[in-house]
Structures are given as structure tokens and as C-alpha cells.
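job 3f2a | input accepted
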Amino acid sequence: MLPREELLKGVENRDSVARVIDLAEQAIKTWEVVFTDFFSPPELAEIQRVFGKLTEVQILASGGYPQAERQRIAITRSELPLDVSQVSVALVDIAGNFLFDTASHRDFLGAMLGTGIVREKTGDIIVLGERGAQAIVVPELVDFLQMSLKQVRSVSVQTRPVDFSELKVREPKKKELTTVEASLRLDAVASAGFGMSRSKMVDFIEGGDVRVNWKDVSQASAQVKSGDLIAIRGKGRLEVGDIAVTKKDRYRIQLTRYM
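job 3f2a | predicted structure (259 res):
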């Protein structure tokens, strides 16, 4: 058995981590690959941190494409082979004419949940403007959604399964840059990386719009480190790369911005 209480000590997403521990114990006992539902980025980050301590089991997450935010996890014993193709997900196309009644991500999610399914069964939703949307789900939901999801807002839709080769996701634009800062404060590094004033960045941070490694951060003075991922709602993400100290005791920081 896994050291449950030790693994759960100090975790924020206790219920989510506990569910994965249950499934991991099942995987150890049965020598099979078992699967979770979808997790949000903060849940996923904490699960990966907790399970990184274990040698008995291995986990692998996928959401259907490399940049997916919501992902489900495959779990099995460390001795068994495991690759991303084993993380089973499905893609459905939700097609309709939204030219005169534009639908948002919230609208498509709300319509899906209105059929009676739970959020944990759905991954990312990619909105395609006036044409509708695509949604990543657990495979067992495909037939149900095809029969049940008939309307989003005032628009009639046709829901059908499609191959992932038809996924309409654009590769994120990437920009590499270097900045030299007096400190590793979040407001200093993020303002340089996102190309905005420090006071504007402080507004974003104090307004609850900034996450570091998928955790909300409300203090501009928070310290960042190499490997951190900084995200601002609606502005993209910033990855902190190598950090070196200059001869004048300042910090030369490599940054990658994803837009």
C-alpha cells in the first residue's frame, strides 16, 4: 500500500490527489494500466509533484495535443511499459452556424454539462468562431454527446466524433528573450517577459490574474526561479529559463514567451 497520509500532507487538491492514490493502488494490485478523468492544470501539477516521489508506480498525462491544459492520467506499475498513446481521449466536433449568435467557451461547456455529464469527463474545448467548436472528452462519452448535444445557445448543432488529425489547434507563437534585472521578483521578471510596465503587471498580479506554476499568486514580491511558468489570463504564458548572476550582482534571465 502507498503511504497515503504522507503523500496527502500539505496538498491543496486533496480530493483529486486521493482519487489518484486509490487508482494507483488498483494499478499496483492488478498489474494493469488504469485511467483518471481530466484534471485542471493546478491539480495536474500537484499530482505530478506528489507522484514524483514514488518508485512503485509511474504516471503519464495527456490531453490529446501537446499544449492541452486539461489532461487525464494513465497509471501503472513502474515495471510495465507506458507511453502517451495509451492515454485514451476522443475528439468531437460540435458544428453549427454561429454567425449571428456567437458562442463562447463557457457557452459550449455549459451546453455539454446541460446534457448531464460532469466537468471531469471533458478536456479542452477549442472554439472555432462561427463554425462551432471541438471538444476533447473521455471516449465513453462520444456516443452520448452525439445523441444528446443538439443545441448551443440558440443554435442547432450536430455533434460527431472526428479523428485527431482534424484537430483545429494552432501552434503557439514563441519568442525567446533575455532580460537583466536587479531581483527575481515576479513583477520585475513578468513585466519584462510580457512587455508591459511594472505598474501594469502589479495590477494584474494584485487583481488575481496571474498564476505561477498554475497557482494563483497575488504578491508582486514573490520570487521566481528557473523552470517556473508564469501565466496571465488572456495574455499567454512565460517560461523562466536559465538564470545567471552578472559581475554587477544583477540577474541575467532567459525567458520564453508563448502567445
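job 3f2a | The chain has seven helices and 15 strands.
job 3f2a | closed
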